[in-house]
Write a structure and sequence with these properties.
By secondary structure, the chain is α+β, with helices and mostly antiparallel strands. The strands form three sheets. It has a four-stranded antiparallel β-sheet with strand order 1-4-6-7. The longest helix is centred in the middle third of the chain and has 17 residues. 41% of the residues are buried. Helix 1 packs across helix 8, helix 4 runs antiparallel to helix 5 and helix 5 crosses helix 8.
């Protein structure tokens, strides 16, 4: 876990404060596709690529990390995380397997997967993110406002670590609006 935190410690110049307001709703990354309405099937947010809100962007990223979906994680990450502009034009080729952006994201997601993955029987993770109010096209969502399979992400990370207590960890995801899509532009992980 120390390697993960070291790798992401430089991603933020923020003081680690938490997001604004109380949750008014929860957004799940499992969304209905138009085809699913007829069959009753659902499509995971990592497959659907929902980025219409900051909650959907963060939920899609968490789902992609847990499922090891590097391409989807790449598509939802923005400049501060990937070191490049969000995927524009042909996002499929920009984030295709083996591309520079994909390789950089793979390094991050591989390190985070065991940290973010709850103990579960399998299948798609149920990720929910508390609805937040964005100001100026940016919002910060702390790990205690994200639920994975019924546990907050903070609880999952603590369960997967050794020697850390609840007061020792501060994780937040910053999402930024670019055009009509939201991207995760910062993953801020602090110990202490």
């Amino acid at each position: 876990m120390a390697a993960v935190l070291t790798a992401l410690a430089g991603c933020s110049d923020d003081d680690g404060g938490s997001s604004t307001g109380k949750p008014t709703a929860r957004v799940s990354t499992t969304v209905e596709s138009p085809e699913a309405e007829e069959t009753g099937a659902t499509v995971s947010g990592s497959s659907a690529g929902a980025q219409a809100s900051p909650e959907e962007a963060v939920g899609t990223l968490i789902t992609a990390v847990i499922e090891g979906d590097t391409e989807q994680a790449c598509l939802v990450m923005g400049p501060s995380v990937t070191g490049a502009a969000p995927a524009m034009g042909d996002p499929g080729s920009a984030c295709a397997s083996g591309s520079p952006a994909s390789e950089q994201v793979k390094t991050v997601t591989d390190r985070l997967r065991t940290t973010f993955e709850p103990q579960r029987a399998g299948g798609h993770p149920a990720v929910e993110v508390d609805e937040v109010t964005a100001e100026g096209g940016k919002v910060k969502i702390p790990a205690d406002r994200i639920t994975v399979d019924g546990q907050t992400l903070e609880e999952v990370v603590l369960a997967n670590s050794t020697g850390l207590g609840s007061g020792d960890l501060d994780i937040a995801f910053e999402a930024t609006e670019t055009g009509d899509r939201w991207y995760v532009t910062d993953v801020d992980m602090n110990i202490g």
